[in-house]
Amino acid sequence: MNTLTLYTKKNCKLCDEVKELIDILSMDYQITMAEVDIEQDAQLLTTYFLEIPVLFINGEKIDYRGIDIFSLRERLH
């Protein structure tokens, strides 16, 4: 089982694209995903405001520059 945490905010097109990638990958991999809205937490908003989407896969942080279907497949088991 792969554990994913996606840090996102409302009206984020890049975040929506990452969710679509995860949906596609969930057909081939067992995935449990939690979505965290950074706007609901002042510390998260400060930390990730300019970096979203940020995705953690099995504890490994991947920022938006490194998220694509190929890099995600490499990290999933």
UniProtKB/TrEMBL annotation:
Highest rank taxon of the organism: Bacteria
Transmembrane regions: none
UniProt cross-references to InterPro entries, sorted A to Z: Glutaredoxin-like, Glutaredoxin-like_YDR286C, Thioredoxin-like_sf
Gene3D superfamilies, per the entry: Glutaredoxin
Signal peptide: none
Record Pfam families: Glrx-like
SUPFAM superfamilies on file: Thioredoxin-like
PANTHER family from the UniProt entry: GLUTAREDOXIN-LIKE PROTEIN C5ORF63 HOMOLOG
UniProt protein name: Glutaredoxin family protein
Species of the source: Halobacillus shinanisalinarum
UniProt lineage: Bacteria, Bacillati, Bacillota, Bacilli, Bacillales
